[in-house]
Amino acid sequence: MTKPAFAAAVLATTTILSGTAAHADLNLYCSAQEEWCQIMAKSFEEATGIDVAMTRKSSGETFAQVKAEASNPKGDVWWGGTGDPHLQAAEEDLTEAYVSPMREQLHPWAIAQAEASGDRTIGIYFGGLGFGYNTDMLAKAGLPAPACWEDLTKPEFKGKVQMANPNSSGTAYTTLATIVQLFGEEKGFDYMKRLHANINQYTKSGSAPIKAAGQGETLVGIVFLHDSVAQAVAGFPIATVAPCEGTGYEIGSMSIIKGARNMDEAKKFYDWALSVEAQDLALQVNAFQIMSNVGAAKSDKAPDLSAIKLIDYDFKKYGSAEERKRLLSKWDAEVSTLPQ
Amino acid sequence: MLIFWIIAGWVGFALLPWYGVDDFYSFGWLADGWPLDKDYAPAAALVAQGQKLWLAPMALALIAPLLVLRRPKSDPVFARVLIAAGAFGFAWLVAQGLGIGLRGFNAGWLDALFGPLDDRQFGMGYGALVTATAFLFLLTQGLAAHGAVNGDVFVTSAIAGVVAVVGIFVFFPIAKMLLAAFATDDGGYSVAGFFPKLFDPRIWGLGCLSGGQCGAAWNSLFLAILVGVLTTLLGLAFALVLTRSGFRYKRLLRALTVLPIITPPFVIGLAIILLFGLSGTVTTGIAATLGIEPSRWIYGLWGVLIAQLLAFTPIAFLVLIGVVEGVSPSMEEAAQTLRANRWQTFRTVSLPLMRPGLANAFLLGFIESMADFGNPLVLGGNFDVLSTEIFFAIVGAQYDQSRAAILAVVLLAFTLGAFYLQRFWLGRKSYTTVTGKGDSGVHPRMPSGLAIPVYVVVTLWSAFTLVVYGMILYGSVVQLWGVDNTITLKHYITAFRVSWGESGLRWTGSAWDSFWTTMMIATIAAPLTAAVGLITAYLLTRQKFAGKRAFEFGTMLSFAIPGTVIGVAYILAFNVPPIEITGTGLILVISFIFRNMPVGVRAGIASMSQLDKSLDESSLTLGANSWQTFRAVILPLLRPAILAALVYSFVRAMTAISAVIFLVSARYDMSTSYIIGRVENNDYGLAIAYSTALIFVMLAAVGLLQLLVGRTQIGRRTSHGEGH
């Protein structure tokens, strides 16, 4: 190929590929599971006629992207994913403050999320923390069903419990912060050390432990309850447990990206996403979180919020970068280095 | 040629929109106020209206070449004017692009020097692209006329072209990323935080010597060396069976060796878990037979090693097959005529001549293992490696970009170390055997002492590969993999349904969107990758020029860095002017070209170092120029390398994940990111069905490429009665 021919080839390439996502009327960054994201985008298009370009990525990836794009935002609204990255984005001034007229229809925990962030983010769903176990394996091993956090540290469960690494997973960090708030810092770390002795693997991703339990690769996986329920609904022999001592939770959140190019459409989506109509879509895609609109429908498979003992999770403190770094380096130094 | 680039420069400067235009090819901008509207105006029109005056000096650099158009090339003024104009124009264009951005001046010292600028500019468009290209090639014409590389315009332009694109799409984003290694939490830069993070025990700990966990750096290094050595040996074994044995089903074996390379990520890992995991078929079977407790042995070094061997042996094979075929039979025949037996011939003649292939295969295995991300994620257990640590430092709960950048530096140091070690081992010996001087004959069979172990290894490994793929195929047709084994086709139907609607055929399956995008991007990226790779290999093996080592280093760099880092670096570099291409399909194509180009380069170098220079020289003596020589003499002899580059880049574009996950957008979603989404959502059946379909598509594509490129006949390389 001659050089002009090469240049022509490059031009031909760009012919087919030029253009950006910018002519969609709304650019949605979505951090929930694929179907949920798709049904949200499609239903919003049907409800309003606004064209949606949706990108699905995990909340950590989306945060990294929003941060990288800060000086020239490409996304308009970021829907779904655990609350911490949303709070961190608010803390770093990456998202826009907005008070929706829909706010009065929401559960108090959803509004608390907005108040903690200076109105830069809001709760859209609630997910409690707990664990799930493989019922076939439990029967085969002849062990009693675990019901409490303490049960997981019993010697019978040695090498049978899996959780994610808090350094890499938001779920596992929520677990660490929950234990610290539940038992106090000293006793909490003592618990993490005893649990460490029973852990067979710290996975990288937050929901991996319950998938491993579904495939029979571990007996117990510490995860969010809705992930465990979804695994059971998918057909795996999984039972879900909300620990008896009480437990923490995540608030799945939504934020408008600062400097969004389609600010009006972003706000329209924001209001719509808080409506009963939008939140009822969750059940169609097997998402078993508890939705933030008081009027939203509940699944009978979803964990019953009233039966779960909840701690008063301090998102402001435990979501801050400083406290996070401190707890993680303490966990690194005191827990992860111990022999198993 | 000169007049072509001058015209191109003027077209870019005075006709095409200077800044990026959405939907350029709908040509709506022509009717929408062009050439005066400031969004669509060419640079000349902007300057004429008194706007963006910093673009004006480039006009001088476009006028100057017109003055020397009539002068002969040998006139020193001709060369000097072109060099000055090209260099000034290009440098000015780059400087203004980097200096002035969305918020006026990009750097504080520019504000201090000129006062704050009350204007801004967006990403460059086609006008800027064409003008920049024109400046670059005006410069190379001048340099060639001045006597650079013996006055060879083709070679000078090729060098400058490769340097420019590698500079823009490899060095620039990586530099931006590495700058982040010194970033502090509050957005400033500091060296103080760098060293404690670099010498973190989580990276360098040696706990595994005393029963604990080792640091990620040692784990990665150890794993990469194992993978490099073992993939090279396995690849060599397959290459030997294919070229130096009477094995009858060579085609089948060839197809089998390519299978793993065309398998989307995670799938091999899942199959291995179903075989060897705690509840895996093999593990429970063995545990029941021997009466031992099943264990989680697969999670850790062993699992990752097995998965990476499956995944990367084909790469070693693709590099080695070209080299093993390329060793001239004349040499081997000469050795045998001199009464060496088969074993002596193999050990003292064939094997040493394969050294470039062995070294390159090891290097690729080593680097691929270092950068691999999917397998350690699924099978790593508590065995931390650098690539996953980098990924989770960026996207995990820590959001620590500077830690990621530091880990990337460590990883880079290892891969570059391997690179220099390999060069040292190859030394300055010549491995040329294809001389064009009466080359004929047939490769001798392997000596039997070697043939038996090679056959055993090849048979066992082939059987293992078949079992793994049998599992995958099975996984795609059962209800729920590992739990409910009812046979069903529902996963294929969900993914690839088509139906007849009012407007004809409708692609209603959930996988079609990402499938067509992936096909398009892979089809565009593959030939470009092969072209850039082979031109680079040609320059590296056949031309002498200043800075060649740095040039080689630069072209290998993008390969040595894990895709995750490239992904984030691309977002950091290309989301803002002057080059603003995030969210387009173009950024995916570009990332594939520069990620996969090194394989083309390596395969090209390995093959080209076997071709004697006298071939080029005789072509040049007969009056051909270097471009004609490259096209008519070298390229046809490089068919195996071309095929390797094309196949590899096509396939990688369809199976790569780590960089892609940061670069996909709503409009350009790729198969792999879609598949990962399915896996995350417990939808294993659909993920595996999609992967299986992709495997068949890629097999067909590889076959098609093989037909298109054709085979090279070096000498009479077939003996009677034996198919090739």
From TrEMBL, chain A:
GO terms for molecular function: thiamine binding; thiamine pyrophosphate binding. The keyword Disulfide bond does not apply. It holds the Pfam family SBP_bac_6. Residues 1-24 form the signal peptide. Keywords: Signal. GO terms for cellular component: outer membrane-bounded periplasmic space. The keyword Signal applies. InterPro entries: Ferric-bd. PANTHER family: ABC TRANSPORTER SUBSTRATE-BINDING PROTEIN, THIAMINE-BINDING PERIPLASMIC PROTEIN-RELATED. This is Iron ABC transporter substrate-binding protein. It comes from Fuscovulum blasticum DSM 2131. The lineage of its organism: Bacteria, Pseudomonadati, Pseudomonadota, Alphaproteobacteria, Rhodobacterales.
